[in-house]
Design brief:
The structure is a single chain. This protein is an alpha+beta fold. It has two domains: about 110 residues, Rieske Iron-sulfur Protein; about 220 residues, Naphthalene 1,2-dioxygenase Alpha Subunit, Chain A, domain 1 (Alpha-Beta Complex). Helix content is about 30%, strand content about 30%. Strand 11 and strand 12 form a beta hairpin. Helix 5 packs across helix 9.
Length: about 375
Amino acid sequence: MHDIASEPPRNYVSPARFALETERLFTRGWIFAGLACEIAAPDDFLRIPVAGHDVIIHNIGGELRAFINSCSHRQSLIHTESRGHRPLVCPYHGWVYDLAGAPSRIPAKEDFPQVTANPGAFSLKAVELDRAGQFLFVRITPGGPGLAEFLGEVGEFLGNVSDSLDRPLDEFRSTINANWKIAIENSLEGYHVPMVHRNTLGANQQFSRNTEDITDHLVPSGHSFMTNRANARWLKRWQTYASDTGTWPFSFNHYVHRLVFPMITVTSFLGYSFHIQRFHPDAQDRTSVHSRIYSSKHSGRTERGERMMEAIFRENIDFTHRIFEEDRSACETTHAGVLQSHSPAVFASTLEQRVAHFRSTYLKAMG
């Protein structure tokens, strides 16, 4: 049994600990890479950092494949953009790669008899790739539980979200100068809301403030979630517009915050849109964040309802950016404080139980 109460603060700021996390957690585990709908057409691709590796996922004739982003010829990067559309061709000397990652066309191929005789021996290094609905996951080091087993009950949730996703409303990338665990843990508790978000989330009238309407779900897989029922009076007013706003596939009467361990969160209020955030650890003191907001598919929406929802989407995007900046400041201040600390953290018995659950899952994964 791990004693999370004795977890030393240095584990949040130590380069040696970060190196161990990279080896045991990020290299061996399933890491969220992006959404299949972002690379739906042949020759679409996305590029992401994973555990110190530069990984590309490429749509080759409608099939998705993942590789290390390094040409087999003289190791040039094949893709330099974070996302784009072009064939799997090295921009340095024009080597073309096929579905298996093997070189299929080479300029001046007569100068490479060893490659033309056995192209499979010169394939790009493949990376394990699997998906849950639209959610793509990669694993650098193969072996261990499959994706479905790793996801457990959260797999159904990701499937429901995937069936709902419609058009992208907003996308942004940013950096938090703090350890990735500080950023994740900040997202798992509402105890900081009255101080950090008093003029944003703290002033929100859509959520119920009754403690019995706010529930943490600590599941064995480690992919915890929280639900907060909508304010009853607000919901009653909202429902008067139902004939205009129509319906959407994954509908519910609460706010939900899901953690897919170790580093993505999926949130939604009522299911009319979804906010997906990927937290990537760049170093022990820097975390990159890739944020996406998608609207949900809908039916039965009137022209008036379209105008209403567009106004809500614009307001939610601005709201999300403001909250992110507030959280970034809080995380960076916490990281600076951790650098000075020699005492383990203290957990509230209920308000911070998802943080404690995350730390317990993390320690178990680290072995």
